[in-house]
Write a structure and sequence with these properties.
15 helices, 2 strands, MetI-like fold, 348 residues
């Protein structure tokens, strides 16, 4: 297990470096840098003034060096002007400019300053992750039990009308995008057109005080989309397990159908869906972009959209790094959990 973890951690670090470098390279293309310069200065800057600003602020260094500075593994750039005044990346970011650190990147916790929110990015990411985490928790509490229940019932009744009905429902929910189901739910349950104003079509107030009225629609929208795939996976796994020889042996011994399902079939049938459920976490983190924008819930996804729309490069890089980290960590947890749940994998 130790060697497995060491190999996986090495692959994770290499993958994280590759993905973050690709994002860093794409966000630092010339058009983006020009937009950044004009937003920091003014929109009437000439090309010469743009190039001068980029040179003074360290954007004309080699891309690998700038990536190392952003990551925090290379010293921040410094520059002395004609008046003898020294400026630099770490000097500008230091709380005490007279004693700046040599390294001031992502590893050191210095994520930069947001042009949109006008505050330190680390605080923004922490706050928005908390809001999205609250939404993700509610979605998982609704989605996982319902998906497992639908999948188990369909798998136990393979080939019957119940199985076909539940399977059709699962396919329908998975094939309907969030922006379609979200709009339908708003029209039906939160607008005058639907005539049933049981819920609110916006979740802005849920950021401070989540209630049944303002938080139900975004939760149901995400739960419906993710529930179908988990239910289908559970149904397939349950149907396969019910055909195993040890299930037939248990039935021949006189055990009740309920005892066979709960004590023998269910535990083995949930091994495969476990991986899918865990991998729903990074999907929820990055997939909430549409739902948070649709319901005006200003969480992590909404922040990502704001960063892209306003060319906030530092905030976009921070959000991308967090998303990459969450995806890799959840994949590691999924692999470790699968090894413990499946003895055959552990023995191999």
């Amino acid at each position: 297990m130790i060697s497995f973890l060491i190999r996986r951690l090495g692959v994770m670090i290499l993958t994280a470096l590759c993905l973050t470098f690709v994002v860093f390279f794409l966000t630092n293309l010339e058009p983006n840098l020009e937009k950044l310069t004009k937003s920091e200065g003014n929109m009437r800057m000439t090309d010469a003034q743009v190039q001068s600003w980029l040179d003074k602020n360290g954007y004309r260094q080699p891309i690998l060096k700038r990536y190392g500075e952003w990551l925090g593994v290379m010293p921040g750039w410094t520059r002395t002007d004609e008046n003898g005044e020294t400026t630099g990346r770490c000097i500008r970011r230091a709380e005490d400019p007279d004693n700046p650190p040599e390294y001031c990147g992502l590893i050191q916790g210095n994520w930069g300053f947001s042009l949109v929110f006008k505050e330190n990015i680390s605080g923004i990411v922490r706050e928005k992750l908390g809001l999205t985490g609250k939404l993700m928790l509610c979605v998982m509490l609704v989605m996982v039990p319902l998906a497992l229940l639908i999948g188990v019932i369909a798998g136990m009744r393979e080939g019957t009308k119940t199985d076909r009905t539940l399977s059709a429902f699962s396919i329908l929910t998975t094939s309907t995008p969030e922006y379609v189901s979200g709009v339908i739910l708003i029209v039906v349950f939160a607008s005058k057109l639907g005539g049933l104003r049981w819920f609110k079509g916006t979740a802005a107030t849920a950021m401070e005080n989540a209630t049944f009225e303002n938080f139900t629609l975004p939760v149901i929208t995400l739960a419906l989309y993710g529930m179908g795939y988990v239910a289908r996976m559970t149904r397939a796994s349950m149907a396969e397990v019910m055909q195993e020889q040890y299930i037939r042996t248990a039935r021949l011994k006189g055990l009740s159908f309920r005892a066979v399902v709960l004590k023998h079939a269910l535990r083995n049938a949930l091994i495969a869906p476990f991986t899918v459920i865990i991998l729903n976490i990074p999907w929820l983190l990055t997939g909430v972009v549409i739902v948070e924008t649709l319901f005006n819930y200003k969480g992590f996804g909404w922040t990502l959209v704001a960063a892209v729309g306003n060319n906030d490069i530092e905030l976009l890089l921070a959000c991308s790094a967090v998303a990459v980290l969450v995806v890799l960590v959840t994949q590691l947890i999924s692999d470790i959990g699968y090894v413990f749940l499946n003895p055959r994998i552990r023995i191999n």
